Amino acid sequence: MLIIEDIANAFFVSSLTSISDDFYRCEATYSSTVREVLIDNSQLENINSIIRSEDLSYDVSIKYKNETIIRWAQESITSDVCREIEEQLQFLEDNPSLETCIKIHKTKAVEKNNKTHIFVLKSFIEGPLSEPDLEFIKFLQFFDLSKVIIFKIWDENIEFGTENIRFEHISSTSNHVINSSLRESTITKRNKSCHFTNDSQYKFLPEDFKLIRPAPDPIISNKFNRLMLAFILIYLCDYSEIVDKDEPYLDYKMKGYRLISNRIEIDSLDSSCADELYGIYEWVYNQGNFVDKVGLAKNIISIHMAGDDFNTLSNGALRSIESGYDIYLKENVKQYIEIKNKISEMLISQADKASEITKNMLATLKTSFWSLVSFFITVILVKVVSAKSDDGIISGEIVIMMIIFLVFSFIYHWLSECEVDEEKNRLFERYTTIKDRYRDLLNEDDLNKIIDTEALKSKDDCYIQRRRKIYRRVWLSFNIIMLLVVLGMYFYKTPSIFESATATVKKHIPELSKSEKNLINKDSKKQN
Q: What distance in Å separates the CA atoms of residue 230 and residue 273, rounded to the nearest whole number?
């Protein structure tokens, strides 16, 4: 209030006649009997500097007999104003009684700094805070709810408010931070099980009106408690709507063990049960499985109410809800364990499939190995039976056939590698499918802990890559050895088997004497 007096007294010595302080501006009227115009330019400059620093603006008008004789805005106040006033006073009687009207506008401060100003707290309480609660809500819509809303008080050094709406002295330099992600998360949860018709208009939370420091006047306390209760009902009921009429009311429906349906005027809400309901709201939204908890809360609330009015809610409803939830958890812990075991079995089964993928590759390797070995052995046996004297065991045709077999072996190996990659991708997709299948049954954090898809994929991928690397080396080594053996046998021409046998016989049978040879020849002739 002192800043307004300073503005008025910068022109004349004045006394306050009336003042009103509302949401959008503060308007004060001062009366004075003018004998001399004295404008303190340095004082005005200091006032203007303070006003500008708070993103406020003001204008001044001087009236004589209810008629404005001169008016100017803050930006146009100069040393020439004194001369203009004196010129106007020349046409008036001596020592005229004048009225100085000062208006300080607050809208710019709301838009730029998310704050507004209260110059006279008492006037503000008796004025806008005494109006219908919905008017206060409509004014708060102009603020950015992702930041703390600040009301700067000029005439009293007090501090009170909620976590998100603060009332503090103009000299306070506190730095306020709000968790905007928590706000969005809470609204998202509400929209899963509750329908609020005015969601696009009023994006407030119950904690926006939960006083953490007591207000200096019961008017403020009652208003905040009523609004807190209204939004608690909005966040707990299945359906709710704020109807803006001459007497705004809240229409709500809650489906528990029985249907609760009612319509209550917001300004006449009895907030005696507000703390109990706030505890329930906080328990539902701040921890655990929201969907299960809000359903349980609705059922038990409907049991603890005598009628459709929440004022009939009995004490201890929160304790009953917590006890009911404990029983609910015990009944479902067996099901939870069964689900967890089933997931574990499925994951173990999938891990076994990672082993089967590489086993198929090993089977392919064995098939290729025995095919080449069989071919090689068959060639050797055929050569032994035929026992040609002019050729080696391995001919050029055999080498060509062996090379063709090796080419097909490498093609077979490439196809096996492709099959392994395809089966591996299918295996990894199954992990994601399993996780998505249980997403609606388990908490997201718990599900991530049970089915860590990235860790599982990484582990199986390392296993598959290690096994396929070993098989690839064995396959490659075997084919190279086979090729080298065949080529070696081809280029090293061995003597024929018949020649080898004859030489062996000659070596072991002794030479016949000359007489024995003649005797053999005579016998041959007689037979002829």
A: 11
